[in-house]
Amino acid sequence: MGRVLAIDYGKKRTGLAVTDPLQIIASPLDTVPTYQALDYLVKYHETEGIETIVIGMPKDLMNKDTDSTASVRHFITLLQKKFPTHQIHTVDERFTSKMAKKAMLDGGMKKSDRRKKENVDKLSATIILQSFLESSI
């Protein structure tokens, strides 16, 4: 059984989260510059093995596309070319950044660490992954 990898795609940074090989626990992985994300994922897959990819799909409160939706769809097309045999799922990512910030605050993370956007990005990816895992049960 391979890992499930989640992506919180952003124009500048992309947050990543991953499960353990048994697909039980979702954990933050890393935040990478978006222009390096595909290369990072290919290298990660070579060493760890990815079975499924989950990506957050941006929607507004009315469940309509946002300014970022087209960029995410383009990235999904690139993922499909790099990983043609992998399933790629989308998950509603509304409120994940807000939830990540709250989790950091509730978890006692220092203010200086909460201000680092890369921490919010990879925690948002973890929330996306957890949401996917819970919906797959």
From TrEMBL:
Tell me the CDD domains matching this sequence. YqgF (cd16964)
Q: State its Enzyme Commission number(s).
A: 3.1.-.-
Q: Which domain of life is it from?
A: Bacteria
- SUPFAM superfamilies, alphabetized: Ribonuclease H-like
Q: What class of enzyme is it?
A: hydrolase
The family note in this entry says: Belongs to the YqgF HJR family.
List, alphabetically, the HAMAP family matched: Nuclease_YqgF
Q: What name goes with this protein? A: Putative pre-16S rRNA nuclease
Lineage, highest ranks first: Bacteria, Pseudomonadati, Bacteroidota, Cytophagia, Cytophagales
